[in-house]
Amino acid sequence: MDALPMQEQTELDYASTQTATGPGGEDVHVMHGCGHDVHVAALISAAEWMSAHRDQWAGTFIALFQPAEEQGAGAQSMVDAGLTEPVPRPDIAFAQHVLALPAGQLGVRPGPFYSTAANLKITVHGEGGHGSAPHLTVDPVVLAAAIVGRLQTIVSRELPPGEFAVVTVGQIIAGTQSNIIADRAVMELNLRTYSEETEAQVLAAIDRIVRGECAAAGSPKEPEFDFHDGFPVTVNDDDASERVRVAFAEHFGEDLQPIDRQTASEDFAVIPEAFGTPSVYWGLGGGHAEAAAGGEEGTIPANHSPYFAPEPGPTLQAGTEAIIVAARAWLA
Question: I need a labelling partner for 115 at 20 to 30 A (CA). Which of 191, 197, 235, 292 fits?
Answer without folding.
Answer: 292
